[in-house]
Write a structure and sequence with these properties.
The chain is α/β, with parallel strands linked by helices. It is about 25% helix and about 30% strand. It has a 5-stranded antiparallel β-sheet with strand order 3-2-5-6-9, with no helix packed on it. Strands 1, 4, 7 and 8 form a 4-stranded mixed β-sheet that branches. A 4-stranded parallel β-sheet has the order 10-11-13-12, covered by helices on one side. The protein starts with a helix and ends in an 11-residue tail after the last strand.
Protein backbone atom coordinates (compact mmCIF):
# COMPACT_ATOMS: atom_id res chain seq x y z
CA UNK A 1 0.00 0.00 0.00
CA UNK A 2 2.88 2.36 0.92
CA UNK A 3 4.60 1.58 -2.40
CA UNK A 4 1.48 2.45 -4.39
CA UNK A 5 1.09 5.70 -2.44
CA UNK A 6 4.69 6.72 -3.12
CA UNK A 7 4.29 5.93 -6.84
CA UNK A 8 1.09 7.97 -6.95
CA UNK A 9 2.77 10.96 -5.33
CA UNK A 10 5.74 10.72 -7.71
CA UNK A 11 3.41 10.48 -10.74
CA UNK A 12 1.50 13.54 -9.59
CA UNK A 13 4.78 15.43 -9.09
CA UNK A 14 5.97 14.55 -12.60
CA UNK A 15 2.67 15.71 -14.11
CA UNK A 16 2.91 18.96 -12.16
CA UNK A 17 6.45 19.62 -13.40
CA UNK A 18 5.42 18.86 -16.99
CA UNK A 19 2.32 21.02 -16.82
CA UNK A 20 4.13 23.98 -15.25
CA UNK A 21 6.01 25.25 -18.35
CA UNK A 22 2.97 24.69 -20.60
CA UNK A 23 0.74 26.68 -18.26
CA UNK A 24 3.27 29.52 -18.22
CA UNK A 25 3.49 29.77 -22.01
CA UNK A 26 1.80 32.65 -23.78
CA UNK A 27 -1.30 31.84 -25.82
CA UNK A 28 -3.08 33.97 -28.41
CA UNK A 29 -6.29 32.60 -29.87
CA UNK A 30 -9.50 33.73 -31.45
CA UNK A 31 -11.92 33.41 -34.34
CA UNK A 32 -12.03 34.90 -37.83
CA UNK A 33 -15.38 35.59 -39.52
CA UNK A 34 -16.49 37.33 -42.70
CA UNK A 35 -18.78 40.34 -42.98
CA UNK A 36 -21.80 38.08 -42.56
CA UNK A 37 -20.43 36.56 -39.36
CA UNK A 38 -19.62 33.20 -40.95
CA UNK A 39 -16.36 31.46 -39.97
CA UNK A 40 -13.49 31.82 -42.45
CA UNK A 41 -11.49 28.63 -42.95
CA UNK A 42 -7.89 28.89 -44.11
CA UNK A 43 -7.41 32.55 -43.17
CA UNK A 44 -3.76 33.37 -42.45
CA UNK A 45 -3.18 35.01 -39.07
CA UNK A 46 0.19 36.79 -38.97
CA UNK A 47 1.56 37.76 -35.56
CA UNK A 48 4.48 40.23 -35.69
CA UNK A 49 6.34 41.75 -32.75
CA UNK A 50 6.50 45.55 -32.81
CA UNK A 51 9.94 45.74 -31.17
CA UNK A 52 11.75 42.83 -32.85
CA UNK A 53 11.72 40.78 -36.05
CA UNK A 54 9.97 37.85 -34.35
CA UNK A 55 6.86 36.68 -36.19
CA UNK A 56 4.58 33.67 -36.49
CA UNK A 57 1.81 32.53 -38.81
CA UNK A 58 -1.09 30.18 -38.28
CA UNK A 59 -4.18 29.25 -40.32
CA UNK A 60 -7.76 29.07 -39.13
CA UNK A 61 -9.63 25.75 -39.00
CA UNK A 62 -13.08 24.98 -40.44
CA UNK A 63 -14.67 26.87 -37.54
CA UNK A 64 -12.55 29.96 -38.21
CA UNK A 65 -10.54 29.36 -35.06
CA UNK A 66 -6.79 29.82 -34.60
CA UNK A 67 -4.29 29.49 -31.76
CA UNK A 68 -0.58 30.22 -31.40
CA UNK A 69 1.42 29.13 -28.36
CA UNK A 70 4.84 30.09 -27.06
CA UNK A 71 5.41 33.68 -28.18
CA UNK A 72 7.52 35.90 -25.89
CA UNK A 73 5.70 38.57 -23.92
CA UNK A 74 5.34 41.91 -25.70
CA UNK A 75 3.28 43.99 -28.11
CA UNK A 76 2.31 42.48 -31.46
CA UNK A 77 0.64 43.51 -34.70
CA UNK A 78 -1.84 40.76 -35.58
CA UNK A 79 -3.29 40.55 -39.10
CA UNK A 80 -5.84 38.12 -40.51
CA UNK A 81 -6.10 37.75 -44.30
CA UNK A 82 -7.95 35.59 -46.83
CA UNK A 83 -7.91 36.42 -50.54
CA UNK A 84 -8.83 40.13 -50.75
CA UNK A 85 -10.18 40.24 -47.19
CA UNK A 86 -8.19 41.63 -44.28
CA UNK A 87 -8.37 42.84 -40.69
CA UNK A 88 -5.67 43.98 -38.25
CA UNK A 89 -5.36 44.69 -34.55
CA UNK A 90 -2.69 45.23 -31.91
CA UNK A 91 -2.31 42.94 -28.92
CA UNK A 92 -0.20 42.70 -25.78
CA UNK A 93 0.80 39.10 -25.12
CA UNK A 94 1.99 37.98 -21.70
CA UNK A 95 2.99 34.57 -20.46
CA UNK A 96 0.40 32.79 -18.36
CA UNK A 97 -2.45 35.08 -19.54
CA UNK A 98 -4.22 33.87 -22.71
CA UNK A 99 -5.01 36.65 -25.20
CA UNK A 100 -8.32 36.50 -27.09
CA UNK A 101 -8.37 38.33 -30.43
CA UNK A 102 -11.25 37.98 -32.90
CA UNK A 103 -11.42 39.36 -36.45
CA UNK A 104 -14.13 40.28 -38.93
CA UNK A 105 -12.61 40.44 -42.40
CA UNK A 106 -13.46 43.24 -44.81
CA UNK A 107 -12.38 43.86 -48.44
CA UNK A 108 -9.04 45.62 -48.90
CA UNK A 109 -8.39 48.15 -51.63
CA UNK A 110 -6.41 51.25 -52.37
CA UNK A 111 -7.78 54.72 -53.07
CA UNK A 112 -11.00 55.33 -54.94
CA UNK A 113 -10.79 57.12 -58.32
CA UNK A 114 -12.37 60.18 -56.68
CA UNK A 115 -9.69 60.26 -53.98
CA UNK A 116 -6.92 59.99 -56.56
CA UNK A 117 -8.49 62.84 -58.54
CA UNK A 118 -8.74 65.06 -55.43
CA UNK A 119 -5.08 64.54 -54.59
CA UNK A 120 -3.92 65.43 -58.07
CA UNK A 121 -0.20 65.49 -58.77
CA UNK A 122 1.90 64.21 -55.85
CA UNK A 123 5.60 65.04 -55.65
CA UNK A 124 6.42 63.54 -52.24
CA UNK A 125 4.26 60.90 -50.56
CA UNK A 126 4.76 59.80 -46.94
CA UNK A 127 3.17 56.36 -47.05
CA UNK A 128 2.21 54.61 -43.77
CA UNK A 129 2.70 50.85 -44.09
CA UNK A 130 2.33 49.60 -40.48
CA UNK A 131 -1.02 47.86 -40.93
CA UNK A 132 -2.61 48.71 -37.55
CA UNK A 133 -4.46 52.08 -37.59
CA UNK A 134 -2.86 52.59 -41.03
CA UNK A 135 -2.58 50.74 -44.34
CA UNK A 136 -1.00 47.27 -44.41
CA UNK A 137 1.98 46.87 -46.78
CA UNK A 138 -0.02 45.37 -49.66
CA UNK A 139 -2.58 48.20 -49.64
CA UNK A 140 0.25 50.73 -49.40
CA UNK A 141 1.74 49.23 -52.57
CA UNK A 142 -1.60 49.71 -54.34
CA UNK A 143 -1.73 53.34 -53.24
CA UNK A 144 1.84 53.87 -54.42
CA UNK A 145 0.91 52.53 -57.86
CA UNK A 146 -2.18 54.76 -57.98
CA UNK A 147 -0.50 58.02 -56.91
CA UNK A 148 2.78 57.58 -58.80
CA UNK A 149 4.60 60.20 -56.68
CA UNK A 150 8.06 61.44 -57.60
CA UNK A 151 9.36 60.38 -54.16
CA UNK A 152 7.76 57.85 -51.81
CA UNK A 153 8.89 57.51 -48.19
CA UNK A 154 7.52 54.53 -46.21
CA UNK A 155 6.67 55.30 -42.58
CA UNK A 156 4.85 54.04 -39.47
CA UNK A 157 6.69 50.72 -39.26
CA UNK A 158 9.32 51.70 -36.64
CA UNK A 159 12.20 49.27 -37.21
CA UNK A 160 10.12 46.21 -38.09
CA UNK A 161 12.04 44.97 -41.12
CA UNK A 162 9.44 42.34 -41.98
CA UNK A 163 6.81 45.03 -42.66
CA UNK A 164 9.31 47.09 -44.63
CA UNK A 165 10.48 44.12 -46.70
CA UNK A 166 6.87 43.16 -47.50
CA UNK A 167 6.24 46.68 -48.81
CA UNK A 168 9.50 46.81 -50.79
CA UNK A 169 9.26 43.32 -52.34
CA UNK A 170 10.51 43.52 -55.96
CA UNK A 171 10.67 47.34 -55.73
CA UNK A 172 13.90 49.32 -56.01
CA UNK A 173 14.65 51.57 -53.06
CA UNK A 174 17.40 53.92 -51.93
CA UNK A 175 18.59 53.99 -48.29
CA UNK A 176 20.57 57.16 -47.52
CA UNK A 177 21.23 56.00 -43.93
CA UNK A 178 19.75 59.16 -42.43
CA UNK A 179 16.47 60.24 -40.86
CA UNK A 180 16.45 63.47 -42.88
CA UNK A 181 15.88 64.18 -46.58
CA UNK A 182 16.20 67.52 -48.34
CA UNK A 183 14.13 67.88 -51.51
CA UNK A 184 13.87 70.64 -54.09
CA UNK A 185 11.79 70.91 -57.24
CA UNK A 186 14.89 70.57 -59.40
CA UNK A 187 16.01 67.41 -57.59
CA UNK A 188 12.77 65.49 -58.12
CA UNK A 189 13.33 62.31 -60.14
CA UNK A 190 11.59 61.69 -63.46
CA UNK A 191 9.83 58.56 -62.17
CA UNK A 192 8.91 57.26 -58.72
CA UNK A 193 11.84 56.74 -56.36
CA UNK A 194 11.33 55.02 -53.00
CA UNK A 195 13.57 56.40 -50.27
CA UNK A 196 13.83 54.53 -46.98
CA UNK A 197 14.88 56.86 -44.18
CA UNK A 198 16.30 55.53 -40.91
CA UNK A 199 13.52 55.66 -38.27
CA UNK A 200 14.69 58.07 -35.58
CA UNK A 201 15.88 56.13 -32.53
CA UNK A 202 15.72 52.78 -34.37
CA UNK A 203 18.24 50.00 -33.90
CA UNK A 204 21.38 49.91 -36.01
CA UNK A 205 20.40 47.70 -38.95
CA UNK A 206 21.72 49.60 -41.95
Amino acid sequence: MRTHLIRGVLAAAVLFVMAGPAAAQSVIRGRVVDQGGKPVEGAVVSIEATESNRRAQVKTNRNGEYMQIGLPSGRYNVTATKDNLKAAQQATISQGNPTELNFQLTPTSGLTPEQVKQMGRVDVAMIPIGGVFTMPPQTAREVLAQLKPKIAIPMHYRDNLYILETFLKDLAARKPGSDTLTVSKSSLPASTEIIVLRPKGAREYW
